[in-house]
Amino acid sequence: MRNELRLGILGATGMVGQQYIKLLADHPWFKVSRIVGKKSAGMSFKDAAEWVGEYDPPASIMDMKVDGANPESQGADLFVSCLPTDGAKELEPLYARLYPTFSDASAYRMEDDVPLIIPEVNAEQGRLIERQKRSRNWMGFLVTGPNCTSIGLNMTLKPLDDEFKIRKVIVSTMQAVSGAGYPGVPSLSIIDNVIPYIKDEEDKVAIESNKILGKFVGGRVEPAGLAVSAMCHRVATIDGHMESVYIETEKPVSVNDASQALRDFTGLPQSLKLPTAPEKPIIVREEPDRPQVRKDKNAGTVPGMSTVVGRIRPGLDNHSLKYTLLSHNTIRGAAGNTILTAELFYKQGWMNL
Ligand SMILES: NC(=O)c1ccc[n+]([C@@H]2O[C@H](COP(=O)([O-])OP(=O)(O)OC[C@H]3O[C@@H](n4cnc5c(N)ncnc54)[C@H](OP(=O)(O)O)[C@@H]3O)[C@@H](O)[C@H]2O)c1
């Protein structure tokens, strides 16, 4: 393993790109060496990005020049991509042909040889790249992260499914404005408002959950066969998606047993002690009024990486349960999850670097 890898960010000036820049500022393995944009190509980062964070960007990035996309001449050891869907569709295969490429975009999430990874939940599906590299004859590979709403949801479904076998999931979401990118939803449409529609989001949550929780057998993912129904709303918070979840299970489920399963949940990132792994992937709160977006979105040892769960209570019978979860959409829901995935691939030796 080399000590330091050069990392390029495709889409560095956007909402997710800015999170990469913050999270990678002091990263022990990955150093940002290239930033790529379209409209901002040729400008310095400080002139190109409408920085929305509370603190200034790291000094090392301020004067870095934004490059246009050019995979052939963009020396970096790996790339992360937070491009919009059309940009991702066109550019990600060109990068993945040459480099390990980790994406937050939806363009290739459902291809059957492309992993869709939450490292604590389905790390084994990372092995899909073996088939991908062979069949596409690529030197690099493409790995994706799920939609920001699917990530928080599936983080909690995994331990409950392992323990009680979930049959049905009904989820209603309250999603922050940063989920729509920059500048996103116009201020006059969202202030003092809730919008009960986010294009394509409800279908993504249902389809992705079945791949994420699917079984990895014979080099393929068999979909989990879960019935998932989502109702997605945009609300006037900045970061942090809240989700109200109702599940039905094959085995009887109690509040105590479910709380314990969520509390005990841990995964490969924790046992490998990866730099971006939170000590607890799921934090359970007992108070009747938690989680709350302002108080809990950055909870845990790695801010923004833990899913916070509360209000765990019985459903209509002893085969059902309801709870509320909160997940930071641009950290665990995008940049943080993808950095953790890249760390996992590097540590497992799957990057060949
Ligand atoms: N926001 C979230 O919470 C979230 C969560 C999970 C996944 N995602 C996904 O992550 C991706 C990025 O989301 P975002 O919210 O960061 O969007 P955003 O704020 O609109 O940023 C998009 C970035 O992509 C760059 N870009 C656009 N077209 C390009 C092209 N053809 N070549 C190179 N760069 C290009 C833009 O730079 P220029 O201005 O220079 O063109 C900008 O830096 C999307 O696919 C989104 O669905 C977002």
Report the CATH topology name of the largest domain: Dihydrodipicolinate Reductase, domain 2
Named once each, the bound ligands are: NADP nicotinamide-adenine-dinucleotide phosphate
Q: Domains counted in the coordinates: how many?
A: 2
- According to CATH, the homologous superfamily of the largest domain is Dihydrodipicolinate Reductase, domain 2
- Unreliable runs: none
Radius of gyration: 19 Å
CATH level 1 class label of the largest domain: Alpha Beta
Mean pLDDT reading: 96
Number of strands: 15
Residue share in helices?
A: 25-40%
Largest sheet: 7 strands, mixed
Strand content: 15-25%
Distance between the termini: 7 Å
CATH architecture of the largest domain: 2-Layer Sandwich
The succession of helices and strands, N to C, reads EHEHHEEHEHHEHEHEHEEEEHHEHEEH
The number of helical elements comes to 13
Rough shape? Answer: globular
What is the SS-derived class? Answer: alpha/beta
User: Strands of the largest sheet, in order across it?
Assistant: 8-11-7-12-15-14-13
Q: Short summary of the structure?
A:
The chain is an alpha/beta fold and 353 residues long.
